[in-house]
């Protein structure tokens, strides 16, 4: 299986919304409109396209601030359950972090406190838990850790 990362396109958004429903049952999954809003606002989004398989994952990050004083926030990372455990989530995260490193920006994110695989992935990439947001995810009321990774200049 070959997977390539490419900028997320409008034609990918229907599949992203399908994956959201699959990945986040009991929560408020993003709609096509929500993904389109992210793209329209200039946020950095990428898709993981598998041959065969089509779009099997997506990820996005916002860049906040001004030159010399940026910070980034991971908005989402999702991988089709049939393709999890194959390094796609790691590749998506690394791509987002490369983008942040180009800006020497610290990176923040929220993750469910019970999502051990994601927490482990983030910790392996330099993130630390800096707080807890009670009842962050709705409608389930699940808690989230806020995690941060310091800015790193790109090489």
Automatic annotation (TrEMBL):
Coarse class of the protein's main subcellular location: cytoplasm
Catalytic reaction annotation: N-terminal L-alanyl-[ribosomal protein bS18] + acetyl-CoA = N-terminal N(alpha)-acetyl-L-alanyl-[ribosomal protein bS18] + CoA + H(+)
Sequence ranges assigned to domain N-acetyltransferase in this UniProt record: 3-152
Record-listed E.C. numbers: 2.3.1.266
InterPro entries named in the record: AcTrfase_RimI/Ard1, Acyl_CoA_acyltransferase, GNAT_dom, MshD_Acetyltransferase
Keywords per UniProt: Acyltransferase, Cytoplasm, Ribonucleoprotein, Ribosomal protein, Transferase
Annotated GO MF terms: protein-N-terminal-alanine acetyltransferase activity
Matching SUPFAM superfamilies: Acyl-CoA N-acyltransferases (Nat)
Cellular compartments per GO CC: ribosome
Stated name of the protein: [Ribosomal protein bS18]-alanine N-acetyltransferase
Organism field: Kibdelosporangium philippinense
Lineage, broadest ranks: Bacteria, Bacillati, Actinomycetota, Actinomycetes, Pseudonocardiales
């Amino acid at each position: 299986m070959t997977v390539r990362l490419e900028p997320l396109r409008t034609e990918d958004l229907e599949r992203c919304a399908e994956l959201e429903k699959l990945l986040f049952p009991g929560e408020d999954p993003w709609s096509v409109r929500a993904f389109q809003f992210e793209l329209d606002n200039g946020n950095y989004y990428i898709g993981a396209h598998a041959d065969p398989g089509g779009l099997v994952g997506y990820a996005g990050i916002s860049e906040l601030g001004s030159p010399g004083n940026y910070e980034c926030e991971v908005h989402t990372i999702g991988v089709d359950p049939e393709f999890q455990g194959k390094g796609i989530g790691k590749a998506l995260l690394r791509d987002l972090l490369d983008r942040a490193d180009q800006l020497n920006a610290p990176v923040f994110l929220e993750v469910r406190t019970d999502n051990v695989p994601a927490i482990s992935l983030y910790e392996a990439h330099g993130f630390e838990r800096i707080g807890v947001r009670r009842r962050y995810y709705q409608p389930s009321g699940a808690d989230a850790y806020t995690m941060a990774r310091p800015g790193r200049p790109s090489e």
